[in-house]
Automatic annotation (TrEMBL):
Lineage: Bacteria, Bacillati, Bacillota, Bacilli, Lactobacillales
Keyword field: Membrane, Transmembrane, Transmembrane helix, Transport
Protein topology in the membrane: Multi-pass membrane protein
Domain Major facilitator superfamily (MFS) profile: 21-410
Main localization of the protein described in the UniProt heading: membrane
Protein name as catalogued: MFS family major facilitator transporter
A single MF term (Gene Ontology): carboxylic acid transmembrane transporter activity
Compartment list: Cell membrane
Amino acid sequence: MENTNAALTHSHTFTKNQKWVIASTSSGFALENMDVLFLSFAMSSMIGQLHLSGGAAGLIGSITNLGMLFGGIMFGLIGDRFGRVKTFTYTIFIFAFATAMMAFANNITLIYILRFLAGIGAGGEYGVGISMIAESFHKNQIGKMTSVAAIGGQIGAILAAITAAIVIPRLGWHALFLVGIVPVVLTYFVRRHLSETEEFVAAKKVEAEKKESTTSAVFKYMFSSPKLAYQSFALMIMTTVQIAGYFGLMNWLPIIVQKQLGLNVSGSSLWMISTIIGMSLGMITFGSILDYFGPRRAFGIFLIASAAMVFTITLAHNTISLLIIGAIVGFFSNGMFGGYGAVISRLYPTEIRSTANNVIVNIGRAVGGFSSVVIGILMDNYSLTVVMGFLSILYVISFITMITLPGLKKMSLKRA
Protein backbone atom coordinates (compact mmCIF):
# COMPACT_ATOMS: atom_id res chain seq x y z
CA MET A 1 0.00 0.00 0.00
CA GLU A 2 2.79 2.40 0.91
CA ASN A 3 4.68 1.76 -2.35
CA THR A 4 1.52 2.16 -4.38
CA ASN A 5 0.72 5.44 -2.66
CA ALA A 6 4.28 6.68 -3.14
CA ALA A 7 4.04 6.09 -6.88
CA LEU A 8 0.68 7.83 -7.00
CA THR A 9 2.13 10.82 -5.15
CA HIS A 10 4.54 11.53 -7.98
CA SER A 11 2.14 10.70 -10.82
CA HIS A 12 -0.57 12.96 -9.34
CA THR A 13 -3.25 10.33 -9.99
CA PHE A 14 -5.57 8.60 -7.56
CA THR A 15 -6.96 5.09 -7.48
CA LYS A 16 -10.70 4.52 -7.67
CA ASN A 17 -10.78 3.70 -3.96
CA GLN A 18 -8.88 6.88 -3.04
CA LYS A 19 -11.37 8.95 -5.02
CA TRP A 20 -14.25 7.30 -3.22
CA VAL A 21 -12.59 7.83 0.16
CA ILE A 22 -12.12 11.57 -0.31
CA ALA A 23 -15.56 11.98 -1.93
CA SER A 24 -17.27 10.06 0.89
CA THR A 25 -15.49 11.81 3.75
CA SER A 26 -15.93 15.28 2.22
CA SER A 27 -19.62 14.62 1.60
CA GLY A 28 -20.05 13.14 5.06
CA PHE A 29 -18.44 16.13 6.75
CA ALA A 30 -20.53 18.51 4.63
CA LEU A 31 -23.83 16.82 5.47
CA GLU A 32 -22.89 16.42 9.14
CA ASN A 33 -22.07 20.11 9.47
CA MET A 34 -25.25 21.02 7.60
CA ASP A 35 -27.35 18.99 10.03
CA VAL A 36 -25.55 20.41 13.09
CA LEU A 37 -25.91 24.02 11.90
CA PHE A 38 -29.65 23.66 11.25
CA LEU A 39 -30.00 24.36 14.97
CA SER A 40 -28.38 27.80 14.64
CA PHE A 41 -30.79 28.91 11.94
CA ALA A 42 -33.86 27.42 13.62
CA MET A 43 -33.08 28.61 17.15
CA SER A 44 -35.01 31.89 17.12
CA SER A 45 -38.12 30.17 15.72
CA MET A 46 -37.83 27.37 18.28
CA ILE A 47 -37.51 29.82 21.17
CA GLY A 48 -40.60 31.72 20.08
CA GLN A 49 -42.81 28.74 19.32
CA LEU A 50 -41.84 26.60 22.31
CA HIS A 51 -41.43 29.57 24.71
CA LEU A 52 -37.91 28.56 25.71
CA SER A 53 -35.82 30.57 28.15
CA GLY A 54 -32.38 31.75 27.12
CA GLY A 55 -30.75 29.23 29.46
CA ALA A 56 -32.82 26.32 28.16
CA ALA A 57 -32.06 27.26 24.55
CA GLY A 58 -28.36 27.73 25.23
CA LEU A 59 -28.17 24.29 26.82
CA ILE A 60 -29.17 22.66 23.50
CA GLY A 61 -25.79 23.47 21.96
CA SER A 62 -23.90 22.33 25.06
CA ILE A 63 -25.73 19.00 25.08
CA THR A 64 -24.88 18.55 21.39
CA ASN A 65 -21.19 19.09 22.18
CA LEU A 66 -21.34 16.56 25.02
CA GLY A 67 -22.91 14.08 22.63
CA MET A 68 -20.02 14.68 20.23
CA LEU A 69 -17.50 13.88 22.96
CA PHE A 70 -19.34 10.71 23.98
CA GLY A 71 -19.81 9.62 20.37
CA GLY A 72 -16.22 10.41 19.53
CA ILE A 73 -14.90 8.08 22.22
CA MET A 74 -17.44 5.32 21.60
CA PHE A 75 -17.23 5.23 17.80
CA GLY A 76 -13.50 5.81 17.86
CA LEU A 77 -13.12 2.53 19.74
CA ILE A 78 -15.66 0.80 17.51
CA GLY A 79 -13.94 2.05 14.35
CA ASP A 80 -10.54 0.89 15.57
CA ARG A 81 -11.88 -2.52 16.51
CA PHE A 82 -14.45 -3.43 13.86
CA GLY A 83 -13.54 -1.31 10.84
CA ARG A 84 -13.75 2.21 9.45
CA VAL A 85 -16.26 1.78 6.65
CA LYS A 86 -19.13 0.20 8.59
CA THR A 87 -18.60 2.54 11.53
CA PHE A 88 -18.57 5.57 9.22
CA THR A 89 -21.99 4.60 7.85
CA TYR A 90 -23.38 4.01 11.35
CA THR A 91 -22.37 7.50 12.47
CA ILE A 92 -23.95 9.08 9.38
CA PHE A 93 -27.20 7.21 9.97
CA ILE A 94 -27.38 8.22 13.64
CA PHE A 95 -26.90 11.97 13.15
CA ALA A 96 -29.22 11.98 10.11
CA PHE A 97 -31.99 10.06 11.89
CA ALA A 98 -31.73 12.15 15.08
CA THR A 99 -31.80 15.37 13.05
CA ALA A 100 -34.86 14.29 11.07
CA MET A 101 -36.69 13.32 14.26
CA MET A 102 -36.38 16.95 15.40
CA ALA A 103 -39.22 17.59 12.95
CA PHE A 104 -41.54 15.92 15.47
CA ALA A 105 -40.07 17.46 18.64
CA ASN A 106 -42.40 19.80 20.49
CA ASN A 107 -40.89 19.85 23.98
CA ILE A 108 -37.45 20.69 25.30
CA THR A 109 -36.80 17.26 26.84
CA LEU A 110 -37.17 15.48 23.50
CA ILE A 111 -35.03 18.15 21.83
CA TYR A 112 -32.23 17.54 24.36
CA ILE A 113 -32.37 13.79 23.74
CA LEU A 114 -32.34 14.11 19.95
CA ARG A 115 -29.53 16.67 19.90
CA PHE A 116 -27.44 14.46 22.17
CA LEU A 117 -27.98 11.57 19.73
CA ALA A 118 -27.14 13.81 16.77
CA GLY A 119 -23.95 14.83 18.58
CA ILE A 120 -23.02 11.18 19.12
CA GLY A 121 -23.19 10.51 15.40
CA ALA A 122 -21.45 13.73 14.37
CA GLY A 123 -18.68 13.31 16.93
CA GLY A 124 -18.05 9.72 15.92
CA GLU A 125 -17.84 10.47 12.21
CA TYR A 126 -14.80 12.75 12.33
CA GLY A 127 -12.08 10.39 13.55
CA VAL A 128 -13.31 7.48 11.46
CA GLY A 129 -13.34 9.58 8.29
CA ILE A 130 -9.90 11.07 8.97
CA SER A 131 -8.53 7.58 9.61
CA MET A 132 -9.82 6.36 6.25
CA ILE A 133 -7.99 9.24 4.56
CA ALA A 134 -4.76 8.64 6.50
CA GLU A 135 -4.77 4.95 5.56
CA SER A 136 -5.65 5.53 1.90
CA PHE A 137 -3.12 8.22 0.92
CA HIS A 138 0.64 8.66 1.12
CA LYS A 139 1.87 10.59 4.15
CA ASN A 140 2.84 13.56 1.96
CA GLN A 141 -0.75 13.82 0.74
CA ILE A 142 -2.56 13.52 4.06
CA GLY A 143 -2.40 17.22 4.97
CA LYS A 144 -3.98 18.32 1.71
CA MET A 145 -6.56 15.51 1.68
CA THR A 146 -7.73 16.13 5.27
CA SER A 147 -7.99 19.82 4.38
CA VAL A 148 -10.14 18.96 1.36
CA ALA A 149 -12.41 16.93 3.64
CA ALA A 150 -12.55 19.84 6.10
CA ILE A 151 -13.66 22.14 3.27
CA GLY A 152 -16.60 19.79 2.90
CA GLY A 153 -17.69 20.91 6.36
CA GLN A 154 -17.62 24.54 5.25
CA ILE A 155 -19.75 23.69 2.21
CA GLY A 156 -22.18 22.11 4.64
CA ALA A 157 -22.45 25.43 6.47
CA ILE A 158 -23.40 27.18 3.23
CA LEU A 159 -25.93 24.45 2.44
CA ALA A 160 -27.46 24.92 5.89
CA ALA A 161 -27.79 28.68 5.35
CA ILE A 162 -29.38 28.28 1.92
CA THR A 163 -31.73 25.50 3.00
CA ALA A 164 -32.84 27.41 6.10
CA ALA A 165 -33.51 30.56 4.06
CA ILE A 166 -35.75 28.58 1.71
CA VAL A 167 -37.52 26.20 4.10
CA ILE A 168 -38.16 28.07 7.35
CA PRO A 169 -40.15 31.04 5.91
CA ARG A 170 -42.36 28.65 3.90
CA LEU A 171 -42.69 25.49 5.98
CA GLY A 172 -41.32 26.33 9.43
CA TRP A 173 -38.42 25.06 11.50
CA HIS A 174 -39.79 21.53 11.90
CA ALA A 175 -39.57 20.96 8.14
CA LEU A 176 -35.97 22.18 8.10
CA PHE A 177 -34.85 19.35 10.35
CA LEU A 178 -36.74 16.82 8.22
CA VAL A 179 -34.26 17.65 5.44
CA GLY A 180 -31.61 16.21 7.76
CA ILE A 181 -32.51 12.68 6.67
CA VAL A 182 -30.78 13.26 3.30
CA PRO A 183 -27.31 12.06 4.48
CA VAL A 184 -28.69 8.51 4.85
CA VAL A 185 -28.40 8.22 1.06
CA LEU A 186 -24.62 8.56 1.43
CA THR A 187 -24.44 5.38 3.50
CA TYR A 188 -25.56 3.34 0.47
CA PHE A 189 -22.70 4.60 -1.68
CA VAL A 190 -20.12 4.20 1.10
CA ARG A 191 -21.10 0.58 1.77
CA ARG A 192 -21.16 -0.23 -1.95
CA HIS A 193 -17.91 1.36 -3.08
CA LEU A 194 -15.53 1.33 -0.09
CA SER A 195 -13.68 -1.47 1.66
CA GLU A 196 -11.24 -1.54 4.56
CA THR A 197 -7.68 -0.52 3.70
CA GLU A 198 -4.77 -2.94 3.58
CA GLU A 199 -3.08 -0.99 6.38
CA PHE A 200 -6.06 -1.44 8.71
CA VAL A 201 -6.46 -5.15 7.92
CA ALA A 202 -2.74 -5.76 8.52
CA ALA A 203 -2.86 -3.84 11.82
CA LYS A 204 -5.78 -5.96 13.03
CA LYS A 205 -3.86 -9.15 12.28
CA VAL A 206 -0.90 -7.94 14.33
CA GLU A 207 -3.22 -6.90 17.15
CA ALA A 208 -4.87 -10.33 17.13
CA GLU A 209 -1.48 -12.03 17.35
CA LYS A 210 -0.55 -9.84 20.33
CA LYS A 211 -3.97 -10.51 21.88
CA GLU A 212 -4.17 -6.84 22.82
CA SER A 213 -7.58 -5.14 23.07
CA THR A 214 -8.30 -1.82 21.41
CA THR A 215 -9.00 -0.18 24.77
CA SER A 216 -5.64 -1.21 26.24
CA ALA A 217 -3.90 -0.08 23.05
CA VAL A 218 -5.51 3.36 23.40
CA PHE A 219 -4.19 3.72 26.95
CA LYS A 220 -0.78 2.40 25.96
CA TYR A 221 -0.26 4.92 23.18
CA MET A 222 -2.11 7.96 24.50
CA PHE A 223 -1.51 8.17 28.25
CA SER A 224 0.79 5.38 29.47
CA SER A 225 3.92 7.55 29.84
CA PRO A 226 4.47 11.20 30.76
CA LYS A 227 5.74 11.89 27.23
CA LEU A 228 2.73 10.34 25.49
CA ALA A 229 0.30 11.87 27.98
CA TYR A 230 1.79 15.33 27.39
CA GLN A 231 1.53 14.85 23.64
CA SER A 232 -2.16 13.93 23.91
CA PHE A 233 -3.02 16.79 26.29
CA ALA A 234 -1.01 19.29 24.24
CA LEU A 235 -2.93 18.35 21.10
CA MET A 236 -6.17 18.77 23.08
CA ILE A 237 -5.07 22.30 24.01
CA MET A 238 -4.38 23.09 20.36
CA THR A 239 -7.74 21.77 19.16
CA THR A 240 -9.50 23.61 22.00
CA VAL A 241 -7.96 26.88 20.80
CA GLN A 242 -8.92 26.01 17.22
CA ILE A 243 -12.58 25.48 18.14
CA ALA A 244 -12.63 28.50 20.46
CA GLY A 245 -11.39 30.72 17.64
CA TYR A 246 -13.94 29.30 15.22
CA PHE A 247 -16.87 29.86 17.59
CA GLY A 248 -15.67 33.38 18.30
CA LEU A 249 -15.32 34.16 14.62
CA MET A 250 -18.60 32.70 13.42
CA ASN A 251 -20.91 33.40 16.36
CA TRP A 252 -19.78 36.63 17.98
CA LEU A 253 -17.61 38.82 15.76
CA PRO A 254 -20.44 39.99 13.48
CA ILE A 255 -22.45 41.02 16.56
CA ILE A 256 -19.43 42.64 18.20
CA VAL A 257 -18.59 44.67 15.12
CA GLN A 258 -22.16 45.83 14.58
CA LYS A 259 -22.39 46.89 18.21
CA GLN A 260 -18.95 48.45 18.67
CA LEU A 261 -18.44 49.99 15.23
CA GLY A 262 -22.03 50.74 14.31
CA LEU A 263 -21.93 48.84 11.02
CA ASN A 264 -25.09 47.54 9.43
CA VAL A 265 -24.58 44.05 8.08
CA SER A 266 -27.79 42.62 6.61
CA GLY A 267 -28.03 39.34 8.48
CA SER A 268 -25.15 36.94 8.96
CA SER A 269 -25.19 35.40 5.47
CA LEU A 270 -22.68 37.75 3.81
CA TRP A 271 -20.29 37.48 6.76
CA MET A 272 -20.59 33.70 6.82
CA ILE A 273 -20.05 33.24 3.09
CA SER A 274 -17.01 35.55 2.89
CA THR A 275 -15.48 33.97 5.99
CA ILE A 276 -16.10 30.44 4.70
CA ILE A 277 -14.43 31.30 1.39
CA GLY A 278 -11.40 32.55 3.32
CA MET A 279 -11.41 29.45 5.51
CA SER A 280 -11.57 27.11 2.51
CA LEU A 281 -8.68 28.84 0.74
CA GLY A 282 -6.74 28.74 4.01
CA MET A 283 -7.34 25.00 4.40
CA ILE A 284 -5.96 24.18 0.95
CA THR A 285 -2.96 26.45 1.51
CA PHE A 286 -2.27 25.05 4.97
CA GLY A 287 -2.54 21.46 3.77
CA SER A 288 -0.01 22.10 1.00
CA ILE A 289 2.45 23.81 3.39
CA LEU A 290 2.09 20.96 5.89
CA ASP A 291 2.74 18.29 3.26
CA TYR A 292 5.78 20.05 1.77
CA PHE A 293 7.40 21.76 4.77
CA GLY A 294 6.11 19.90 7.81
CA PRO A 295 3.61 20.66 10.60
CA ARG A 296 5.84 22.93 12.71
CA ARG A 297 6.29 25.45 9.94
CA ALA A 298 2.66 25.22 8.81
CA PHE A 299 1.17 25.65 12.29
CA GLY A 300 3.79 28.24 13.20
CA ILE A 301 2.90 30.50 10.27
CA PHE A 302 -0.86 30.20 10.72
CA LEU A 303 -0.94 30.50 14.53
CA ILE A 304 1.23 33.61 14.63
CA ALA A 305 -0.71 35.12 11.72
CA SER A 306 -4.01 34.37 13.51
CA ALA A 307 -2.77 36.02 16.71
CA ALA A 308 -1.99 39.18 14.73
CA MET A 309 -4.84 39.18 12.23
CA VAL A 310 -7.70 39.09 14.75
CA PHE A 311 -6.85 42.70 15.58
CA THR A 312 -7.52 43.76 11.98
CA ILE A 313 -11.23 43.49 12.73
CA THR A 314 -10.91 46.82 14.54
CA LEU A 315 -9.95 48.39 11.17
CA ALA A 316 -13.31 47.62 9.60
CA HIS A 317 -15.18 50.84 8.85
CA ASN A 318 -17.81 49.65 6.37
CA THR A 319 -19.47 46.47 5.15
CA ILE A 320 -16.98 45.80 2.34
CA SER A 321 -13.92 46.13 4.57
CA LEU A 322 -15.61 43.93 7.19
CA LEU A 323 -16.21 41.14 4.65
CA ILE A 324 -12.65 41.34 3.29
CA ILE A 325 -11.16 41.27 6.78
CA GLY A 326 -13.46 38.39 7.71
CA ALA A 327 -12.13 36.37 4.78
CA ILE A 328 -8.51 37.13 5.75
CA VAL A 329 -9.06 36.23 9.42
CA GLY A 330 -10.92 33.08 8.38
CA PHE A 331 -8.05 32.13 6.05
CA PHE A 332 -5.59 31.92 8.93
CA SER A 333 -7.75 31.07 11.95
CA ASN A 334 -9.64 28.12 10.48
CA GLY A 335 -7.24 27.17 7.71
CA MET A 336 -5.48 24.95 10.25
CA PHE A 337 -8.47 22.72 11.01
CA GLY A 338 -7.72 19.95 8.52
CA GLY A 339 -4.13 19.77 9.75
CA TYR A 340 -5.01 18.34 13.16
CA GLY A 341 -6.39 15.15 11.66
CA ALA A 342 -3.25 14.78 9.52
CA VAL A 343 -0.91 15.28 12.49
CA ILE A 344 -2.84 13.04 14.90
CA SER A 345 -3.03 10.31 12.26
CA ARG A 346 0.76 10.31 11.91
CA LEU A 347 1.53 10.54 15.63
CA TYR A 348 -0.66 7.59 16.65
CA PRO A 349 -0.57 4.03 15.24
CA THR A 350 -3.22 2.53 12.97
CA GLU A 351 -4.88 0.42 15.67
CA ILE A 352 -5.96 3.48 17.70
CA ARG A 353 -5.99 6.18 15.00
CA SER A 354 -9.75 6.59 14.90
CA THR A 355 -10.06 6.84 18.70
CA ALA A 356 -7.13 9.25 19.03
CA ASN A 357 -8.61 11.60 16.42
CA ASN A 358 -12.07 11.51 17.96
CA VAL A 359 -10.96 11.90 21.58
CA ILE A 360 -8.56 14.79 20.93
CA VAL A 361 -10.78 16.76 18.54
CA ASN A 362 -14.05 16.24 20.41
CA ILE A 363 -12.53 17.26 23.74
CA GLY A 364 -11.42 20.38 21.88
CA ARG A 365 -15.01 20.85 20.70
CA ALA A 366 -16.50 20.34 24.15
CA VAL A 367 -14.10 22.72 25.92
CA GLY A 368 -13.58 25.20 23.08
CA GLY A 369 -17.31 25.66 22.66
CA PHE A 370 -17.44 27.49 25.98
CA SER A 371 -15.43 30.33 24.42
CA SER A 372 -18.75 31.81 23.34
CA VAL A 373 -19.61 32.35 27.01
CA VAL A 374 -16.26 34.02 27.75
CA ILE A 375 -16.45 36.23 24.66
CA GLY A 376 -20.02 37.22 25.55
CA ILE A 377 -18.90 38.34 29.02
CA LEU A 378 -15.95 40.26 27.60
CA MET A 379 -18.18 41.88 25.00
CA ASP A 380 -20.52 43.16 27.71
CA ASN A 381 -17.77 44.64 29.86
CA TYR A 382 -14.75 45.55 27.72
CA SER A 383 -13.71 47.08 24.43
CA LEU A 384 -13.37 45.30 21.09
CA THR A 385 -9.57 45.40 21.44
CA VAL A 386 -9.76 43.43 24.71
CA VAL A 387 -12.00 40.81 23.10
CA MET A 388 -9.58 40.43 20.18
CA GLY A 389 -6.72 40.31 22.66
CA PHE A 390 -8.33 37.31 24.33
CA LEU A 391 -8.46 35.42 21.03
CA SER A 392 -4.90 36.50 20.20
CA ILE A 393 -3.57 35.15 23.52
CA LEU A 394 -5.26 31.81 22.82
CA TYR A 395 -3.40 31.49 19.51
CA VAL A 396 -0.10 32.38 21.19
CA ILE A 397 -0.73 29.68 23.82
CA SER A 398 -1.39 27.18 21.03
CA PHE A 399 1.84 28.23 19.26
CA ILE A 400 3.92 27.77 22.44
CA THR A 401 2.28 24.38 23.00
CA MET A 402 2.97 23.34 19.42
CA ILE A 403 6.70 24.06 19.49
CA THR A 404 7.10 21.93 22.64
CA LEU A 405 5.73 18.79 20.98
CA PRO A 406 8.65 16.45 20.23
CA GLY A 407 6.56 14.35 17.88
CA LEU A 408 6.18 17.23 15.44
CA LYS A 409 9.94 17.79 15.40
CA LYS A 410 10.51 14.22 14.27
CA MET A 411 8.15 14.37 11.32
CA SER A 412 10.01 14.45 8.04
CA LEU A 413 10.14 17.80 6.27
CA LYS A 414 10.96 16.14 2.95
CA ARG A 415 8.59 14.55 0.51
CA ALA A 416 9.06 10.82 0.33
